[in-house]
Amino acid sequence: MTLLVISPDYASHLLPLATLATAWRDRGERVVVASGPATAGIVDAFGLERRELRLGRGSNPGVIRAEDQPVDEGASLRGFFAATREGAVPTLRYQAAERLTDLMWEPVQSARATQRIVEEVRPDEVLVDHLAFNARLGLATAGVPYGDVVLGHPSALPVGDEVYGLPPEWPSAVRPDPDELADLRALCERVSNRFADEWNRAARELDPAFPTTADAFAEHGPLVLYNSPSELADPARGPLLPPHRFLGSALREEPEDREIADWSETAGRFVYVSFGSFLSVRADVLRRVADALRSLGLRAAIATGSADPGELGELPGDWLVRPYLPQVRLLRAASAAVTHGGNNSVTEALGCGVPLVVLPFSTDQFAGAAAIERSGMGVALDPNAAAAGDLADALARVLDLDREARDRLDALAARQAARPGPEVAFEALAEQPEAAERAS
Length: 440
Fold this sequence. Notes:
The chain has 440 residues and is α/β, with parallel strands linked by helices. 46% of the residues lie in helices and 12% in strands. The protein folds into 2 domains: 2-250 and 419-439, Glycogen Phosphorylase B (Rossmann fold, 3-Layer(aba) Sandwich), CATH 3.40.50; 258-418, Glycogen Phosphorylase B (Rossmann fold). The chain has helices at 11-25, 40-45, 71-84, 88-103, 107-121, 133-141, 178-206, 258-266, 276-279, 283-296, 327-331, 343-351, 365-375, 388-399, 403-418, 421-430, 433-439, and strands at 2-6, 30-35, 49-52, 125-129, 147-150, 223-226, 244-246, 270-274, 299-303, 320-322, 336-339, 356-358, 378-380. The strands form 2 sheets. It has a 7-stranded parallel beta sheet, with helices on both faces. The two termini are 13 Å apart. The chain has 17 helices and 13 strands. This is Nucleotide disphospho-sugar-binding domain-containing protein.
């Protein structure tokens, strides 16, 4: 059997997809990854085959800096970083305006490149990042079934009257003005219409008989795999979801680092802090998190990313501070985590039974933060408004969860350990009618 994995050239996307693929790899099956050059090292580290496939103008090998990107992408990132300082709605407006170039980069060329790889590799099963719209269009117009992996809050695939780019729920600490929200919704609807037009034009060029869509953002594969625990799902959305499975998380194995292993074994109670590949640029917020940790006398492991550690103030000598840290290894030993609310950070923390302080900046992070808050497994704050004292209070709360929330979190982690995300994905694809036909 051959599995084809299709991913944009971003580490934060490929890492969970490659982890899902280990269910095939560890069974001795062939796994081929189609992605860009920046993530080639990740493919090699997982011991998988690779095919070159560029699906966007940007890339990210693990830590992203605007100056390392092509000129247009670098300018876009700088605009995004500036928007996050203005607040939630300005950030979402900026992202909406950028969406066409972000998500439908050279759609016909990328779709055809995807089709050529399928013809060459001849996969039995395909896993593809939901946000790889141009690759999914290539698969759909060629009639190739696939597992559609939503790497984010489930609302990244809108249902019902949801509009892509407009969070369906907000954490209590972030309450946009109703008029601003109405304007944002109108903008997201205009972008959605333009995106559908672009999708339909590309689809007609690829296959003139392919059906048109009114909302390309709502299009999906025959099986949707949500890289999220079902415990965070909004029950009201349940009846609207397409055929799907909740994977929980994709807890990856990371190379052993003796220095980090020694530190975590002797650190006692510590907090893991990371704002991911992009948002580590917000050193001002990381500084306030560091101030809160110092005030509580807590030890910390901080992945600074693109931030200058010097901007975080004088850091205690017994803290672990590096640009990049093995997140899953540290989460397995951490008492709590502070995150921007990215999908990997949230799902990996919960899969390790670690409560969260979430500081959402953009996209589906707001809905994800609201889900964490609703579940009682963490606290959400506005990153631009939360002072060090607010952060210290939030950390104290998650470090002393009430018994009911602690029990739910422990049960979630136990269920994921018993049925890891890669195994759920493997079983789900094997049960698809197309897979049964191939096996007969």
